Amino acid sequence: MTNLRLKKEMIDAVNNQIKANEPPCTKRIFMQLQEQGCTKNEAKEMIAAVLLGEMYEILKEGRPFDEKKYERELQELVEDDFIFDDVMQELEDASDTILQANINVYEAIFERKPTEAIRIFMDVWDDIKKFVKDNFYKQDSKGNIIKPELIDIDDETDFKYELFNWLQDMEMEFHNSRLYEERIQFCQEVMDLFAWKEDSADNYKSAIGEALNDLKRYNECDEWFENWLKEEPDNISCINTYIQCVSGREDWEKAKQLTEKYIGTSIEFNGENEILLYRALDVYEGLGETEKAKQYQEKIDEYLKWFKKNRKFDEDDYAEPVYFSQPIVKEKKTYPNDPCPCGSGKKYKKCCGK
Q1: Please, what are the domains in the chain?
Q2: Around Cβ 341, how many Cβ atoms within 10 Å?
Q3: Cα dihedral sign, 319-324-330-332
Q4: What is the pTM of this model?
Q5: Are 86 and 110 in contact (CB under 8 A)?
Q6: Cβ atoms within 10 Å of 103's Cβ, excluding its own
Q7: Residue of 17, 93, 10, 18 whose CA lies nearest to 53
Q8: Model confidence over 172-201: pLDDT tens digits?
Q9: In the prediction, which pLDDT does 84 show?
């Protein structure tokens, strides 16, 4: 478990303080604890527990290291009975609670009980955020908080259903339960909790725009996507979801304007932007502009030929495309930690998902 890794890191930090004699109080208390009958390991564990508490407060309060406060708390060790395992047990118990909720949530999802899944999840959401901050947040030499990337959390934890997938699935459960305000808040909290470098927050950004649209807050929805496009003018997820939202409210003229502006008739598929071909087809079919729709259908056919030639999947995967004007059956998504569909045996994020 991550708690064991955290414990080791705290012990290593104590060893460094003792070796460098910085701050001096660490080595002094370390010697005094041994004089009182503690073994070296016990003394280090007791000091590590105090250091862990100090680091947590630094992160929580955003303050610098307080050496005098740290020294006072270390001094209390030679006066009080302080057991490191008690502190670690609190973290362990919290983790067990999250692990069980992880299982219970998916049981509810599999039984198609989204409201129950959300109830179980929200009971531990604060615990999850605390777990991430306590175990994965770090601090640089200037005191700045370094957040982890969501994609890396699952390499260090024992969730049955990986946290990366869990959070994305919960975002969809909020949508399925029509809890649009809650969906917005949840997505914002997820984006704030993690750093987004190797992985992107596109799914959560798109979800916020969709929720604003579902709430019929159309001006806010459009403003959200426009601001996003100012930062990333070629972001495929943004363009696709923006046009989808506008089409969903049957504002076909605006959908056409967006299609012409961000997709255009000269777009060529590249194995990543094919979703935009389908989106443009949907718009022109909605407008009844058959000639334009035909152009995109030809591009889609060309893409499917390329796909069959360059991807090794079963023939069943090459069914006729489902246009957006028809009922959409959601395809199984390949997540970063899933086996890569190409059959390499590697994780998707380490292979075709790079």
Answers
A1: 2-82 (no CATH), 200-323 (1.25.40.10)
A2: 16
A3: positive
A4: 0.61
A5: no
A6: 12
A7: 10
A8: 999 989 999 999 999 999 999 999 886 689
A9: 45
